[in-house]
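quick one, two chains, predict together pls
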Amino acid sequence: MSAQAEVSRHAIRGARWRWSEAAFWLVVLACAFAFPSRYLIMADIARLALFALSLDLILGYAGIVSLGHAAFFGVGAYSAGLMALHGIITEPVAALIAAGLVAMALGFLTSFLVIRGADLTRLMVTLGIALLLEALAERFSDITGGTDGLQGIEMQPILKLFAFDIFGKVGLFYSLAVLFLLFLLARRIVHSPFGLSLRAIKNNPLRAAAIGIPVNRRLIAIYTLSAFYAGIAGALFTQTTALASLDVFSFERSADLMLVLVIGGAGYLYGGLIGAVVFRMLQEVFSTITPQYWQFWIGLVLVVIVLVGRPRMHRWALWAPNLIIKQIAGRKAVVAVPESDA
Amino acid sequence: MTSALTNLFDGVAYGMLLFVLACGLAVTLGLMNFVNLAHGAFAMTGGYVCAVLVNQAAWPFFLGLPLAFVASAAIGAVLERLLYRHLYARSHLDQVLFSVGLVFMSVAAVDYIMGSSRIFIKLPAALEGQIDFFGVGIGRYRLMIIVICGLLTAVLQLILARTRFGSRLRAAVDDPRAASGLGINVPQVFAFTFAFGCGLAGLGGALSAEILGLDPYFPLKFMIYFLIVVTVGGSSSMTGPFLASLLLGIADVAGKYYVPKMGPFVIYTLMIVILLWRPNGLFGRTAAR
C-alpha cells in the first residue's frame, strides 16, 4: 500500500458525513418551524452564517487575515439592490447569482493585490479596499442613494412561485436554502485535494511551494470563491430586507464578522454557523442590558477570548459534549477542535 | 498662488500632527511587530483628558497638553503591563482581534461618559486667527502645531539615535534574545516605549481636537490614517513615518481642497498603489520581518 493511497484513504474518511452533522441541520430546520415569531432574526443569523462561512474559507483554511471582507458583502448587496431597483434581473435567484458573480469579479481583481506582501500589508490592503468602496458609494450617491441607501426596492417572487411576505417566512427559508447549498459546496471544496492543499499553504507556504503546490494560484482561487460567497450573503441581505445602505461596507461589519468566526472557531465549516448564532444571541442580551452601548460588551468578549486563548476556549466549550459522547458512544470528539491558526 | 501656499502650510501642519499621533504606532507596529489597531483610543483619551481639564476645570491650555500626555502614557503603561505584553508573541490575528475589542470598548465607554457629540477645546486667544506672512495666511494654531511637533520629532530622533536608551531599544527590537543576553531588560524597554508612544498619541489627540475633530468614533475614523503612516513609511527609522505623515497630510489637504468630490478616495488609492509598488513601505527595509 503506497503512501499516496494511505493519504487519500485518510482524506476520504475525514470527508465522510457524520450523524452529528445531519443532526445539526435537522435542528436548524426544526428551529425554523418551531419559532414562527422569530423569522426575521433567524434569517439574519442565516445571512451572517453565510458571510462567516465566506471569511472562514480564506481565514480558517488559507490563513489570509482580512479586515475588509465587508467590501464583497457590500458589492453583493448593492448589485442585488440595483438590479432589483432598475429591473435588470428581477428574478431573485438569478439576481443572487449575478450579484455573487459581480463580487467574485471584484474578488478576483483584488486578489492580486492581496496575495502580495505579508500579513500586515494584507490587512492594510483589504481594509483599504473596503474603505475605498465605501468612499466610492458615498461619492456616487446618485446611483447608490448615498447615506439614505437604496430605497423602494421591490422583490419579485422567488422562481416566480414564492412571494416575499411581511413576516419574513419566505425570506428565512430562502436564506436557509441558499446557506445549505453553499455549505454543501464549501464542504465539498475543503475536503477536496484543492482544500487540502490550502491547509498545507496555511501551515507553511514555503513548504507548500516546495512540494509543488502553486501557492499564489490557489490563494487567488480561494479568495475569489470567498468573495463570491460574501457577495451572495450581501445580496441575500438586500433581497430579504429590501434595503442597502452605506453601512454594508463599514469597518464594524468586517470586525464583527471576525468576532463571529472567532467565537465559532476558524478552520472548520460549522464554526461560522455556530458563531453566527452565538453572536446574535450575545448581541440580543447585551442590547437588552445597555441598549446604546452593547458594543462595549462585544469588545470585552473579543478581549477576553484573545486573552484566554482560542484553542483553550474551544477545549472548554467542547468538554461537556465530548464527555456525553464518550459515555454514550464510547469515543471522543463531537467536532474536531479547530486547528490553531496562523 | 498664495492659496496654494496656505494649503501647503495646512498640509504640513496636518502631517506633523499625524506624525505625533502615529509615531508611537510606528514603534509598536513597525519595530515591535505588534498590530495595535487601538492606538487611536489612546489619542482619544488624551484629547478628552485635555478637554475636561481645560473646559471644565478651567486649566490653561498649555498645562492641559502635558497632562494629556501623562494620562495617556499612564493608561498605556498599565494596559501594557496587564494585557499587551501577553500578546507580543501571538499571531497577528489575535492581536487584531484584541485591539479591535479595545477600540470597541473605548468607543462605547467614551460615548457613555462624555456623550456622542463632537467636543471642542477652548483655545487661548493668542492661538486664534491668522498671521499674514508675505501675503500667505498662516493659522496661528497650525503654526504652533508645526513648532511643537517639529521639536518633538527632533527630540525623538535624537533619543533614538544618540542616547543609551535609544540604542537599547534598537537592540531589543533587532534581536530580543541577544539583547536580554547582554543584560538589557527587554520587557522594561518595551513597556517604557509603549507608554511613551501612547503618551505622544495622547498629546496628538489633544492637539488634534481643533483640526481633526474629537468624538467617540475618533479611534475608528483615524485608524486607517495611522496605519497608512506606518505601513507607507516603513519601519527602519523615524524618518520614514515622518515623511509619510507629511506626504499624507499634504495629499489629504490638497485632495480635499482641489477635488473635494473625490473625498478620501485619493488617500486610499495612493496607499494601495504605494503598498503594491513597495510592499514594505516607501522607506522600508527590503527584508520582511
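The radius of gyration of chain A is 20 Å.
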